[in-house]
């Protein structure tokens, strides 16, 4: 659906200096983006952060569950 070029382009954009740890879904989406780019090492890095993010809301719990599920699908090596 989306090309690798698009994902790489979007990763390179800097709209403003934002801390990705501000919001658990940011961590999950970064992990999923790196999975699409087949960079399992960086995907694992961000998915582990999403999984370990303190769950304060129902959405945080859903993010943790999805990150955990995605992490079981690969070894984390490139």
UniProtKB/TrEMBL annotation:
It is found in: Cytoplasm, Cytoskeleton. One of its GO terms (molecular function) is microtubule binding. Coiled coil: none annotated. The keyword Cytoplasm applies. GO terms for cellular component: mitochondrion; mitotic spindle pole; spindle microtubule. Keywords: Cytoplasm, Cytoskeleton. It comes from Phyllostomus discolor (pale spear-nosed bat). This is Regulator of microtubule dynamics 1. PANTHER family: REGULATOR OF MICROTUBULE DYNAMICS PROTEIN, REGULATOR OF MICROTUBULE DYNAMICS PROTEIN 1.
């Amino acid at each position: 659906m989306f090309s690798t070029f698009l994902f790489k382009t979007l990763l390179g954009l800097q709209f403003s200096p934002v801390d990705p740890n501000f919001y658990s879904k940011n961590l999950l989406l970064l992990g999923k983006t790196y999975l699409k780019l087949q960079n399992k090492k960086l995907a694992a890095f961000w998915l582990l952060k999403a999984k370990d993010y303190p769950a304060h809301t129902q959405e945080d719990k859903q993010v943790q569950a999805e990150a955990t599920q995605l992490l079981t699908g690969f070894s984390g090596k490139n």
